[in-house]
Design a protein that fits this description.
- This protein has 301 residues and is an all-alpha fold.
- The protein has nine helices and no strands.
- Helix 6 (172-197) packs antiparallel against helix 7.
- 48% of the residues are buried.
Length: 301
């Protein structure tokens, strides 16, 4: 394994992660919109066909009806939420790594990297849960054609008025179930691929841009392979009318499997995987470049 040159700095991770998050949203939001629309499309009435036949059909219909702007619907919420969220995510990972090191030169094992990644998932849920709830509601209102919310802030106000802070944080347990194992997978697979792609005797910092893009993109795919089933349940639960699922995710799971079978837990799979590679490749490249800049700017921080 290549020796770590730079001691781990959770603070630098925080700023570099925030920049990585902005890169991720710009690269990945259009396919996120399609994913949510596919996951939450209404069940067709007898004799009618589904609103969207699949990923490409949803893309075509969205472009025809709303233009390119339609693909970036609800992007203000993730930009406002994702920048601090990725900052906190990478900070949590940095902290998780630092807490497990006895000395700054310690090289962590893969289970330790997985544990550090899981800690980052706990950190991000506090920001992620309300951000996801707002994003999903704004994305599906464009599909139903019924405009209930004028924008992210209006959505927060209305949710708070209806059911207080609990309304805004609806789906937190499902967000935790999705993000804790998926974040562990995300960071561990990224570090593993970086080690795999680093030539013998070279340091991680000398990895080429294509290698960073490949490792970041594949880490995104590993992350979503773990995250999709709880993500489908979360999208359903967060966009359901009040009181529809009194027992939370157990009710959503029962209904989905009863009505649509186990395969429905992988709804939006193609859209997610198409988005995961470029979005996370952009995220990790942004992170690595920002990290190099910060190490140059403040080597001792």
């Amino acid at each position: 394994m290549a020796k770590q040159q730079q001691p781990i700095s959770p603070l630098k991770n925080f700023f570099a992660g925030g920049f990585g998050g902005v890169c991720l949203v710009f690269a990945g939001h259009p396919l996120d919109t399609i994913k949510v629309r596919l996951q939450t499309q209404p069940k067709p009435k007898p004799g009618e066909s589904l609103l969207y036949a699949g990923t490409i059909d949803c893309l075509k219909k969205t472009l025809a009806k709303e233009g390119v702007k339609g693909l970036y619907k609800g992007m203000a919420a993730p930009i406002i939420g994702v920048t601090p969220m990725f900052a906190v995510c990478f900070f949590g990972f940095g902290l998780g790594k630092k807490l497990q090191q006895r000395t700054p030169d310690d090289i962590l094992t893969y289970p330790q990297l997985f544990a550090a990644g899981m800690l980052s998932g706990v950190f991000t849920t506090a920001i992620m849960a309300p951000g996801e709830r707002i994003k999903c509601l704004l994305q599906i209102q464009a599909t139903t054609g019924e405009v209930k919310y004028a924008g992210p802030m209006d959505c927060v106000k209305q949710l708070y008025r209806q059911s207080g802070i609990r309304g805004i944080y609806k789906g937190t347990a499902l967000t935790l179930m999705r993000d804790v194992p998926a974040s562990g997978m995300y960071f561990m697979s990224y570090e593993w691929l970086k080690n795999l792609l680093t030539p013998a005797g070279k340091s991680h910092n000398e990895l080429s841009i294509p290698s960073v893009l490949f490792a970041g993109g594949m880490a995104g795919i590993c992350n979503w392979a773990v995250a999709i089933p709880p993500d489908v349940l979360k999208s359903r639960f967060q966009t359901a009318p009040e009181g529809k699922y009194p027992n939370g995710f157990r009710d959503v799971l029962r209904e989905l499997i009863r009505e649509e079978g186990v395969a429905s837990l992988y709804k939006g799979f193609n859209a997610v995987m198409l988005r995961a590679f470029p979005a996370n490749a952009a995220c990790f490249l942004g992170f690595e470049l920002a990290m190099k800049f910060l190490n140059w700017l403040a080597p001792d921080l």
